[in-house]
Design brief:
Shape: globular
Number of strands: 5
Low-confidence stretches: none
Radius of gyration: 21 Å
Structural class: alpha+beta
CATH architecture of one domain: 2-Layer Sandwich
Helix content: 40-55%
CATH topology of one domain: Beta Polymerase, domain 2
Bound molecules: ligand 0O2
Distance between the termini: 68 Å
Length: about 230
C-alpha cells in the first residue's frame, strides 16, 4: 500500500489566503452601500478553512482518496454570507455571478432553498474556483460560498451541533422537531420579507437622525431609552 504524506500546513496555505481575500471582497462590496437608499444585502461575512481532522473525516465518509482531496473536496475553503432578507440572497448571488470569469470561476450552484434538503437545511451554495498568488506561485483552489438568511443560519448552526452531539444519528423525535423548526424559520423569513419596506424605512429615519445629531452638537441628546 502506498503511503501518502501530506504537508497540511503548506497545502492549506492557499485556501486560507483565498478565504481572507474573499471575505475582504464581500465586505468591501457591502461597504459600498453606505449612504445608498438600498441597504447592503450582506449582514455579515465569515469564513474558515476546514480542519485537517474534518477533511480526513469527510474524505473517509465520501470515499475520496487523499491525493484527490484538492480536486474533489469543494469546501476546504468556505465563505458564509449572511443576509437579513430572503430576497437579499438573490442579490448576493448576482454579485458573485457578475464576477464569473473576472476574478473567480463558478463551477456549480446548489439551490437548497428551492430544493430543501431532507434534513430541513436551506441555503444557497456556489462552488467557485479562485486563483491565489502565494509565495509558492499561482494556484486555483475550490471554495464553497454559502449564502443564507439569519434565520436559516440559526437553524443550520443548531442542527450542526446536534448532528455532532449524536454523531450523525439524530433521534427521530429531535429530527422531527428540527424539521418543524426549519419550517418555522422559513415562515419567519417570509413574514419579515413582507415588512421589509417598513424595516428599511425605519432604519433610514434612525440613521438620518443620528447623522443630524452628529453634524450638530447643539441638538440635545435624545432622552435615555428604556426597554419596551
Ligand atoms: P461542515 O462541518 O459544515 O464543513 P454533496 O455535494 O451532497 O455530495 P457535500 O460536499 O457535503 O456533498 O455538499 P453539500 O451537501 O452541499 O454540503 C456542504 C456543506 O453544506 C456542509 O459541509 C455543511 O456546511 C452544509 N450543509 C449541507 N447539508 C447540511 C445540513 O443538512 N445541515 C447543516 N447544518 N449543514 C449542511 P460539511 O462538510 O458536511 O460540514
Amino acid at each position: 500500500m502506498d503511503v501518502i504524506l501530506v504537508n497540511w500546513e503548506l497545502m492549506l496555505l492557499p485556501y486560507s489566503q483565498a478565504v481572507s481575500e474573499l471575505i475582504a471582497k464581500a465586505k468591501s462590496f457591502s461597504e459600498g452601500f453606505a449612504g445608498m437608499s438600498e441597504p447592503s444585502p450582506i449582514e455579515t461575512v465569515e469564513g474558515r478553512v476546514k480542519s485537517t481532522e474534518s477533511i480526513l473525516e469527510k474524505a473517509k465518509r465520501k470515499n475520496i482518496p487523499i491525493d484527490e482531496i484538492e480536486t474533489k473536496m469543494e469546501d476546504i475553503a468556505g465563505i458564509r454570507i449572511i443576509c437579513r432578507f430572503v430576497d437579499d440572497i438573490k442579490k448576493v448571488v448576482e454579485f458573485i455571478r457578475e464576477r464569473d470569469g473576472f476574478d473567480l470561476k463558478i463551477i456549480k450552484e446548489h439551490d437548497y432553498i428551492e430544493n430543501v434538503k431532507p434534513s430541513g437545511y436551506r441555503s444557497y451554495h456556489i462552488i467557485i474556483e479562485y486563483p491565489v498568488i502565494t509565495a509558492y506561485g499561482k494556484k486555483n483552489v475550490l471554495c464553497e460560498i454559502q449564502i443564507r438568511t439569519l434565520a436559516m443560519n440559526f437553524w443550520a448552526i443548531v442542527e450542526h451541533s446536534l448532528k455532532y452531539k449524536y454523531q450523525g444519528q439524530i433521534p427521530e423525535d429531535i429530527h422531527n422537531r428540527l424539521l418543524r423548526s426549519a419550517e418555522a424559520a422559513f415562515r419567519l423569513d417570509n413574514e419579515i420579507s413582507e415588512i421589509r419596506g417598513d424595516i428599511i424605512e425605519a432604519e433610514h429615519k434612525i440613521r438620518a437622525e443620528h447623522n443630524r445629531r452628529a453634524a450638530n452638537p447643539q441638538i440635545p441628546p435624545p432622552p435615555p431609552r428604556s426597554f419596551p
